[in-house]
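Session log. Operator J.P. requested a structure for one protein chain; no other inputs attached. Running the standard single-chain path with token output.
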Amino acid sequence: MISAFFIFNQKGEVLISRLYRTDFKRSIADVFRIQVVSNSDVRSPIITLGSTSFFHVRINNLYVVAVTKTRNNANAALVFEFCYRFINIAKAYFGKIDEESVKNNFVLIYELIDGELRVDSSPTSSTDLSHTEINDFGYPQNSEIDTLKSYITTESVVSSAIAIEESSKITSQATGATSWRRGDVKYKKNEAFVDVVETVNLSMSAKGTVLRADVDGHIQMRAYLSGTPECKFGLNDKLVIDKSERGISDAVELDDCRFHQCVRLNDFDATRTISFIPPDGEFELMRYRSTSNVKLPLRIIPTVTEIGTSQVSYAITVKANFNNKLSATNVVLRIPTPLNTTTVDCKVANGKAKYVPAENVIVWKIPRLQGNSECSFTGTGTLTSTTTRQVWARPPIDVDFQVLMFTSSGLIVRFLKVFEKSSYQSVKWVRYLTKASGSYQIRF
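Structure written below.
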């Protein structure tokens, strides 16, 4: 698996180095510096030189690098997952990860990547062992942030009695069936918050034909539940509806579903019910895509006409295709203009519009747009004369927005049940959000 781990700065200087196996020497870092850091033509995140493979991730002018032997046939996806997990763990400990923060926290970083064997030898418990590093002999180990934070900490050293108790808890958590959750969590008020967040992607031709329409979604959950509760989560998934409730038309097809490790995949494959024991606090339960029957929240009707070589007229209408009880907020249209535009006379009934010469766009901002309503923009752009006329490429109009309590895929949380041995009452909250940011484009 992973034979060595390095962090380089943008000059190629080694900030962190750790050799997990004896098949490399520290001089292997010089090879990466010469072949990758000093070579601006390198674009691939994987470089194989002879029998050595370098996997690197760039973040804030740092190179996070894992080195493997080619003959070991390492799983590339697993190596990159380890690198990104390390980045997330570092962010959880000391915020932004950059050269300064790495230098200031190098002791903590070495404790994370080196770790040590923890021994729970308290008189009241049998001897138990657990690892507190994220990699052991090149094999990724425990990367759960909550588990690591409960022992590896930059705070003052705790007393021996507390250390023994905490070590016992960590050992049982790291080696038990639910390494992502401790069993002694308690809350006065048991609540679960579910956020279904979807990003809608649209590419529409000048003739109004939809070239691409799909949804990237994820379900974010915040669980403040006591004990070790069992949660069951149901969606209006097409496979479930087809099996149990034929004739219902609100079923959605989900593609590329990816789940948090707490989800029991066998239960999902068998019954399409998401069963899990949630981590404490906030986590991402699942990700998915939807490519069929996508509901477009906003319809943009652009009419852009070039008047000779001196003017361009704009008439753009925005229509809200959702219930009038809902509203779109933070609606921003970025309308391209020719490169030789000097001024634009903007007229809007809703929001504010202005010409931004530095970006060659008209920015139209609508704070709130009620469902089943529409608003219009009209404008005339004045062009300066040029010696050679160039054909205007007409880049697409970009639209950003947010719509609460609406999903473009049609996904609905049918139920969320919480079971715990103490049978306490819990409060569940569900919220939906559909948004677009640079991915909703209309050509004209």
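Operator note: The first strand starts at residue 4 and ends at 8.
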